[in-house]
Fold these 4 entries.
Entry 1:
Amino acid sequence: MRTSIEFDPSYSLLTVELDPGESIKAETGAMVAQAGVNMKTGMGGGGLFGGIRRMIGGESFFLNTFTGEGSGGWVSLAPPSPGDIGSFDLQPGANLFIQSSSFLACTENVQTDTQFQGFRGFFSGESLFFIRAYAERGLGTVFYNSYGAIKQVPVTPGQELVVDTGHLVAFSDDVEYSIGKVGGIGSLIAGGEGLVMRFRGNGDVWVQSRNLASLADKLVPFLPKTGGN
């Protein structure tokens, strides 16, 4: 499968060239343009329960599958927010955990479900679930998106990586995390920094350069008031 990413990192566009019979699955609403492909909407892998798990994790209940017809075709995909698009090659047996709303597309043999954060999710300020992507029948590829640019940060043994919860995009399954804070309670209240995720292990974490929740907070004072006030 041949892919290209244009206009990164601000307004990235993913274009996938599909041979006849070759398919890619994408979030509903992600299609920008297409030619020479057939689109079908379904629940993707996992059937009804797989769709419910994706919806609980902050993604769409349905997925669109684009398949090359005739002599093949192409489809262009884009996320709803301005930012970057990245890809990760999944080896059989490996997992990639993606923050809610950052899943964009995957090859046909990649399945997605959710991973419950437990009580850590209540304190992280983010979704209670991560999207778990894993490959069946060989190597697969998953495409994820961010708000702002994406940076890949390695985690090495003996090192702790601290990431603001609003800046996390994804992490590999060979790292573990816990929820905590930076500094004391005074820093949490007045220091402008919220809760963080502390990663340890030997893998990779992907972060985004902007925080959508912070943008929403900045916009609140400019929103129209209700009740005539």
Entry 2:
Amino acid sequence: MSAANGERVGRKRRVGKVLVIALGALVVAASVAIIAYCDDNLHAEERIISRAFDAGYVEKQVTIGGATINYAEGPDNGVALLLVHGQGMEWEDYATVLPGLSARYHVFAVDCFGHGTSEHDPALYSCAVNGNELIAFAREVFDEPYVVSGHSSGGIIAAYVAANDSANVTACVLEDPPLFRVTPEEAQENAGTFAWYDGYTVTHSFLQQGDVTDYAAWYAAHSYLFGLFGGLQSMLAEQTAAWCAEHPDQHVVNAWVPRAWTRGMYFMDDYDPRFGETFYDGSWMAGIDQEAMLRAIACPVGYLKASTRYGEDGVLYAATTDEDAARVRGCLVDCAYAEIDSGHDIHAERPDAFIDAIEQAARGRNS
């Protein structure tokens, strides 16, 4: 072999070694990325929740009027703050903001009835009952002036509490509540709302059958949201059913599907679908005039609305329309309004904006 040929062969071997090393590095990097992706989907929520406990939160229970209310209490670092989660969630849904809030407030984050380990009894599943029990909870557990904040359906409860405990509620934050879009008639106006198709009709159909006993498995197979994913829905439904069967006492996660897509299922193992039925049949808002309730709120109100979006089929993806939001603002005596570029869970997606709204309302600087 000539010297020139030998050099060419040597170069090829060196290039080959470099390519093998580069390919190996890519395989390792891809493997690490996949492991990190799956690990985040499986464990991110529990890590966020653990940081709340690290910040000093303690989970407790109290019996009010014969009904158990489960809640987490933070360190006593200021004014009492009552947090009311949205439908399908539980107190841990606030975990992203709990450490930050604990620096200035004495936080009490509750599980609503039908959620978490609070009482599961359909007789308690109305806004008025939930609201009255939380007013009694405030008097029993901390008995001092307080700020109340609620997300989604919890925002309607927070409005009820502020309207009916005006002597003690010093400020209120309404985080994307479906006011004027919550009754069955309102939720079906025009093309209908995302909550109607992805929530209330799904819980109703689940309760009409008896073959599937795990609501999360039923939801995955019948979700309006997952239906937008085309053929992926059947795969996701199969994976969810398998997870529920193998982990009957655990929150619902999926290693392969982005956490943002499946986060709404996380607490479904602790959710009573009969709670959702009260939104389907309208009994949730029984006896409540939404305008009158809002006009009765005398304290400063921070009102956060997620950006209004519609699907290609015309379904309202937001909790309310812009017109609904204007109607809410028109009913409130002292309101600071902000439309946030966010999904429905503003406190999780835009924690700084949520905490700022609490601060502004608590300082009474809306006027």
Entry 3:
Amino acid sequence: MAKITKTEEEVRQQNVAEAVSKTEQFFKENGKLIYGCVIGVLVIALAILAYNRFILQPKKVQATDQMARAEQWFLSGEYELSLTGDDNDLGFEDIIKQYGSKAGEAVYMYAGIAKLQTGAPEEAIQYLKKYDGEDPILLGKAQACIGDAYADLENYSEAISWYQKAAKTSDNALAAAYLLKAGIAAEANGNDTQALSFYKEIKDKWGNAPEALEIDKYITRIENK
């Protein structure tokens, strides 16, 4: 290593001193702005923490508590009551209005299926499209229910599209059920060729699914037309 001469050391010290001096000068000139920005960031961070602790978390607890009774009504087949609630407990509609998805994404699934069961397919679609769960089986179920709602509205092209999405999302034995619905919707839409492709996909890809046990009759019916 080269030996540092006294002159080089003096230059180094002078450079350090100048850098420190510039830094001090910068803070003198911009100190208020810097401290203001730091305080601003701290205030925002504290506000977020306070919101999560004192507002968001309590609302999540409240929403979850309200969901319990609505879920009971839903599971017992009292779909209208699960939507509207009674004098003591909220239904899914009011839970969504007051809390949104704070009780979990499932609230949209429940509300959508309940609307479907009570003969309100358009409202069912609105709720179900808001469901954004990560579980592929539940997401596929929501997509299939949207297909059911469009089928109720006799919009078979949209129904088929959503059944296909559901089958792709689930990608398990449930896919056969969704493809069967797609085939029936395609027949209702006057597209036997498309329907036949769905039925054959069930037979070829999902031969162990319950829907595959009688799929030959669907295929034969179209081929014999």
Entry 4:
Amino acid sequence: MKKVQICMVIVFIILMILGIVFFITHTQKQSVETDMTPNEIVTAIIESQTELPSLNQITSENEEFVTYLSDYYLIDSKTIENGVIYYADGVEASEIAVLILRDEKNSGTIKTILTGYIQNRAGIFEGYAPKQAALVKKGEIIVNGKYVALLICKDTDVAKTAFLNCFGESQKSSSISTTTKSDNISKTDNSNKIDSEYDSTSVLKAWKSEDTSFLSKTDSEILEVAKKVINQEIKDNMTDYEKELAIHDWITNWSSFDYSVFDRSGNNLKEGSDTPYGVLIEREAMCHGYSSTFKLFMDMLDIECITVFGTPNSNGVEHSWNMVKLDGEWYCVDVAWDDPIGGSPTHTYFNVTSKYLRNSGIHKWNDSNVPEATATTYAFGNH
């Protein structure tokens, strides 16, 4: 009897051991592997897309690969074993990258970092190139084991499938949507804003006194063109609203947005692009060039105007626009975003309310520093 009991105990122990081994074996996370190189994986993704612009390639063998990881993605290159990045230049946001992590445990951190990259990248295009901004917002980050894919392309669902097929259909992934907006808004103090090599006070003083002897060469050129525009576009019988509209339309028809803003290095921004020199002389400017030019004209025409600094879509990319006061009431004007890349000039942001800007989910600013625009009398189409 005792022998039977001992045998039953032994059998029970053996079954327990086998059960434990079975549990460990089948619950342990299986390593995700593929015979394909990162470049082959990206090639498969690219071939799945029907519309892609010309893309530049950076592999882990290139010196700039480490720079790209640290400067643009903000990823510590030591955490990456291998990878390849394909990106578009200019006013094109398409980008596809596959990174192989040294340690799969870092996948969550890398996902978070790349999510931030996509949010900031969307902010660069926001307003200036709406179609490209929308493309970035649809981007996804897919993680499969130690493989991470950054997908900014027209058909992310197809791209995701192409990526996973490189590991076999049985592989599963964890992904996140990158359209989540951050509540952390970058605040900007207007008092710190200065326009390099452009002195608005001197230009206005020369305009009123008709004495240009003290102006720099740059300021003198700016004033000369501004005077010609006022003489051509402004009539004595015009109301302040009509003057404002005439200047707004002249700027959006005369100037174009400076594409160098989208350069990844940030070092190719044209000199004067953030001042009236860019708009009036070079006929190309970034948002600060548009807003400072509009304000200069309003000041010359004695129409009360201020400049507002904020960030588009809560991203860290700085943006600026204006507010004008007509018949004692304030209106918001964003001349730069009324001159979109790849489209015709519009009046989408001409004399709108602060609420309109907020509800658009794009303009973000410290509203405690500026007046609230609530009037609609002089909104475009109402007057």
